[in-house]
Amino acid sequence: MELTSCDTFVALPPATVGNRIIFGKNSDRAFDEVQEIVYFPTLFHGPGRKLECTYIEIEQAVETYAVILSRPSWLWGAEMGANEHGVCIGNEAVWGREEVCEEEALLGMDLVRLGLERADTAEKAVSIIVELLEKYGQGGNCSESMVFSYHNSFLIADRHEAWILETAGKYWAAEKVEDGVRNISNQLSITTKIDREHPKMREHAKDKGNMTSETMMEILRDKESGINMEGEFQTTASMVSVLPQDPSLPCIHFLTGTPNPERSVFKPFIFVPNITQLLETNSPTFGREDPVKKKPRFQSKPDRRHALYCKHQEAMERINSDEETGIKMLEEMRMLEKEILKEMESALQNKCLDVKRAANLFSQSVKNEMKIYESSGSSQ
Question: What's the whole-number mean pLDDT along residues 341-362?
Answer without folding.
Answer: 96
